[in-house]
Amino acid sequence: MVVTFEQPERARWHAQHVELPGPLLIDGQRRLYRHYGMARAAKWTVMQPAIWGQYLKYIWQGRRLRMPQDDIQQLGGDVLIDPQGIVRWTYRSKTPIDRPAIDALLSAVDAGRSV
C-alpha cells in the first residue's frame, strides 16, 4: 500500500505510471505522516547542493524529472506493518532524496515474516 499527500489526480497518474500493485491512499491532511514522525524539512535541507547534485545525476542518467506540484518540504518514509497491524520497521527520510537501502527494506520484510 502506498500513502501520499499529493492531489488525487496526480497520485492516480503516478500509481498507473509505476503500475502500483496495491492500494493507494491519499492522506491530504498528513495525519499518518505526523503519526509516524515524518516531519517537514527546513528550506535549507531541501535546497542544499547535495540535493541538486542528485537531481543532476538523475538527469545525466536519462531520467525525466517533473516539477514539484505539492509541498517539497514534506519528508516521507517507509513503514512496514504486519497483517496483525504491528509496526515492524520504520524509516524516516532526512532529506527529499534520502531513501532506505533496498537490502535494508527487504531484510525488514523478511524479519517481519519470521515473527
Describe the 3D structure.
The protein is of the alpha+beta class. The protein has 2 domains: about 1-35, no CATH class; about 40-115, no CATH class. Helix content is about 40%, strand content about 15%. The protein has 5 helices and 4 strands, in the order βαβαααββα. The protein has helices at about 10-15, 30-35, 45, 50-60, 100-115, and strands at about 1-5, 25, 75-80, 85-90. Strands 1-2 form a two-stranded parallel sheet. The longest helix has 13 residues, at about 100-115.
Number of domains: 2
Point out poorly predicted stretches: none
Total count of helical runs of at least 4 residues = 5
The percentage of residues in β strands lies in: 5-15%
How many strands in all?
4
Order of strands side by side in the largest beta sheet?
A: 1-2
Provide mean pLDDT, rounded. Answer: 84
Write the layout of secondary structure elements.
Blueprint: E1 2-4, H1 8-17, E2 24-26, H2 31-35, H3 43-47, H4 49-60, E3 77-81, E4 87-92, H5 102-114
Parallel strand pairs: 1-2
Antiparallel strand pairs: 3-4
Can you tag this structure with a few keywords?
single chain; 115 residues; alpha+beta; two-stranded parallel sheet; two-stranded antiparallel sheet; 5 helices
Short description, anyone?
By secondary structure, the protein is an alpha+beta fold.
